[in-house]
Amino acid sequence: MAEDREVTIYDIAKYLNISAATVSRGLKNNPMISKQTRKKITDAATMLGYQSNTFASSLRSRQTLTLGVLVPRLNSHFMSSVLAGMENAANLHGYNLIIAQSLEDVDKEKRNVLTMYNKRVDGLLISLSANAVDIQHLEPFFKKQIPVVFFDRVHPHADSTSVGIDNYEAAYKITTHLISQGCKRIMHLGGNLLRNVYTDRFKGYKKALKDHRLLFVESLHLVSNLSEQAGTEAARYILDLPAAERPDAVFSANDTAAVYCMLALKAAGLRIPEDIAFAGFNNDPISKVIEPNLTTMNYSGEAIGNTAATYLINHLKGSTDLYATNAITLRADLVIRASSLKKDAAG
Amino acid sequence: MAEDREVTIYDIAKYLNISAATVSRGLKNNPMISKQTRKKITDAATMLGYQSNTFASSLRSRQTLTLGVLVPRLNSHFMSSVLAGMENAANLHGYNLIIAQSLEDVDKEKRNVLTMYNKRVDGLLISLSANAVDIQHLEPFFKKQIPVVFFDRVHPHADSTSVGIDNYEAAYKITTHLISQGCKRIMHLGGNLLRNVYTDRFKGYKKALKDHRLLFVESLHLVSNLSEQAGTEAARYILDLPAAERPDAVFSANDTAAVYCMLALKAAGLRIPEDIAFAGFNNDPISKVIEPNLTTMNYSGEAIGNTAATYLINHLKGSTDLYATNAITLRADLVIRASSLKKDAAG
DNA sequence: TTGTAGGCGTTATCAC
DNA sequence: GTGATAACGCCTACAA
């Protein structure tokens, strides 16, 4: 019963007594074909239940209308916002997304890159895994001139563009804000220094200290994966410090670590911001729920995703030269909330 | 300079003075081919920079090693966990994920279904949009016997399987728990009743009321999209109620609405759980950050995603009959936290 | 164990 | 405007 062969343009052609070439053209609304036949074709197509075979088409036309997306982890608030933004942009232009995660593992990242290549994605959107030392594994793409756009965790490369925010400036602003609140011993919870987002935040933090004549203290710089657990451990670390060496503020490179650090310190009886002020990064939903609300850096994951995908697609459509722009920097705004308002709390 | 033609199995064949067929076999580790030639082939492949063309292969072999994933929204904690679980399972078995979101819009969902079909995904994983009345639009898949697995927001269909939790029982447990704490006027913040997850939670809630001789009160049943805003509006609604008609507990069908409702009520001076107890659903990260911590239903999005994808893949590989199982129900556990512990709070 | 030949469904290139 | 024909890169009977 079940007819297994696909309905092809040949079936339509036969049905209408015209050539397959004409059907192919008619289906794509090629203006060379008369309005009449075009209508006949589309009608016959729906009535025969025709559905175009994308990869037969891809094989011939050398484009897949598919973008590869490679992220460290799928399940973070920030990343899912980015994906939502990308999906919107892609969908708008008739592109699809094929998505994989590296789980912060370069080897998996490498395999994924090759898979994307084998699937002949038209372009690649990538945010690097924590421990990727270089971008050697992207060579196949560069060699074949398949456009690559980095987002968030970027890496400079002549044949690509990066989309992100100015992490240096953002961290500088946050740190300066804490200093303006009277904080003098500001701890930094940072991420893996192989990634620009974390080195830049670290540098911005140090520069702000320096500009305000505060000493950078090694023991107040912790590097971790910024997970819930890392936040809790940071709290333990702080509590174990001699009273005189305790920080009077914490600037965390993400909200998760900040919030879990706060929770543990609160449980230990410390008052925030009186005893210790806090600032995070990302404007994650939890930053608006924790008490006191967490001062943080707000920037839109959706905007980053949308921008990166749109830029890539425009390039593919030939309306933009990918290499005209090396970096696209989106805005990030300091959102001041109670967790860092030492002066108000005192007053 | 840039040689634009792809490196194909013919290039390898020519290079080694063997036939393309042998190369094709060798590349797939076909045991018919001698170990020696196999090695020669793979060596030549890497040295020539060969990368297999997936869709040329797909065109011929009629399988894409790609699964379509269709979700209402990408950017929720639950959904991104699901995706992470699916990606793990898919990756493990050599499958890829092509992902799209309907943004709760049936029409977009319909278009996406067709795109997935045109891309000839080997199987479809779908969670329905809020306002999908039927699953007429999945017919192409059913007709062609392409397996479909529903997850979370499911829909009964003879030719598919569903993966989710027992929402009815979960809601029953939650409501019973609130009743056991002495609550008598329990409000329910529910979602769109077209979706099983919300009708089942609603039914479980009503059944628990009935079993404990409590009246179901229409005015204590709100239907919304369960967003932050919906939570805040629910609080407004509660505050506007005459004192005698106010609920003494709220069971929300998700944590987001619960938490934003709590925040607004707290801001208005109500005490939780003394004045009004709370329970949510999902065990979202915010439920552990809000004060008091939110009682909720815990179930793993990753497990759901992983199970759904694994099941689908096993079916594709022929090791499972898709229709042997109509529904896979994963466990969900009540996580009791301070927000619902009226008795403790009183004591 | 390997080679030959034809076809998967579409589109590009010429013709007319 | 439309038609013939040859690719695109790979796989798989069948033959050797």
Automatic annotation (TrEMBL), chains A, B:
UniProtKB keywords: DNA-binding, Transcription, Transcription regulation
| Residues passing through the membrane, by range | none
Q: Can the keyword DNA-binding be found in this entry's annotation?
A: yes
Sequence ranges assigned to domain HTH lacI-type in this UniProt record: 7-61
Q: Please list the coiled coil stretches.
A: none
The record, for InterPro entries, names: HTH_LacI, LacI/GalR-like_sensor, Lambda_DNA-bd_dom_sf, Peripla_BP_I
Q: Which GO terms describe its molecular function?
A: DNA-binding transcription factor activity; transcription cis-regulatory region binding
Q: What is this protein called?
A: Transcriptional regulator, LacI family
Instruction: Cite the source lineage.
Output: Bacteria, Pseudomonadati, Bacteroidota, Chitinophagia, Chitinophagales
